[in-house]
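Hey, I'm writing a tutorial for new members on how sequence and structure tokens pair up, and I'd like a real worked example in the thread rather than a made-up one. If someone can provide the structure for the chain below, I'll link this post from the tutorial.
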Amino acid sequence: MQDKGREKTRKKLERLAWFLDSSIKVPGFNARFGFDSLIGLIPGVGDVITALISSVVISEAARMGAPKALLLKMAFNVLVDTVVGAIPLVGDLFDFAWKANNRNVRLLNQYLDSPRETVVNSRLFVWGLAVVLMGLVILVGYLIVLLFQALLSASPAL
């Protein structure tokens, strides 16, 4: 992508992230939220809608040549925003602080400004996430085995 087009896209994504995450100032506080938080208040579909809108940033990052590791990190931010945001009240408060779109635009800008360093950090994140997920799978499997053992030892002999 040419530098002029890349800068134009960066500015559009920064405006989108600002609109979704920081466009509304809370009177009397030094805090901001955006339309992502408001749309997320719609039960059942609000967080799905905002996830779809947030995917625009990821799509543009892919179009701009961002590596898969960075795209996975960005997708993780949106996934966390969507899953936790779906929890009534707690999710809305979380949405107020997490600001996945601002995070993702910041990640994209870091990549465009310093590609090598960002790729290394993103790969480390993906590997760390994979290790944590594998650990959770093993832990859940172990807990299931313990549950079955407890159920079998507690059941009366046939």
